[in-house]
Amino acid sequence: MTDSASSSASCRTYALRHFFASDCLAMGIPITDVAEWMGHRNINMTL
User: Fold this and answer.
1) Whose CA is closest to 17, among 37, 41, 43, 42?
2) Across residues 6-21, what is the average pLDDT?
3) The model scores a pTM over 0.85
4) N or C, fewer C-beta in 10 Å, the chain?
């Protein structure tokens, strides 16, 4: 995989994670749950 393809895949992964977290929060799922699912040690990383 080229550096540009790897970078593109990383950007897509980040975008999907961001979308998932944002969508969960918009649906009213507690931020503590979303933070745990995302592997964040504290909710400040999720905000």
Assistant:
1) 37
2) 86
3) no
4) N
